[in-house]
Amino acid sequence: MSDSRFEAAARLDELPDGALLGVMVRGEPVCLVNVNDEIFAVSDVCTHAEFPIHEGFVTSGCRIECAWHGATFDLRSGSVIRPPADEPLPAYEVRVRDGMIEVGPRKRAAESVS
Most CB atoms within 10 A, among 27, 37, 55, 80? Predict the structure, then answer.
């Protein structure tokens, strides 16, 4: 049975380890990230200055850094690790089925930096 909450976003072979890929899911820009063969999906729009997150890079652990001003986010929750961003990055449920990366609903919002 199909789960309509998830939408195919890319083939798994399009996202090698360490890669970032910008895709559209239900009309929203989403960044797919492969960290040690674990796939994450976050908004592809930095909450600080609306720069494409997929143009950034993965840092140590499950962190992504925006290439424009250096805001850093946790890929698991979207929470801000380092300013200048002060709003979390929306994060999405992800699953891999039959070689396809599928993006599901947004995860519950992470805490903002205080």
Answer: 80
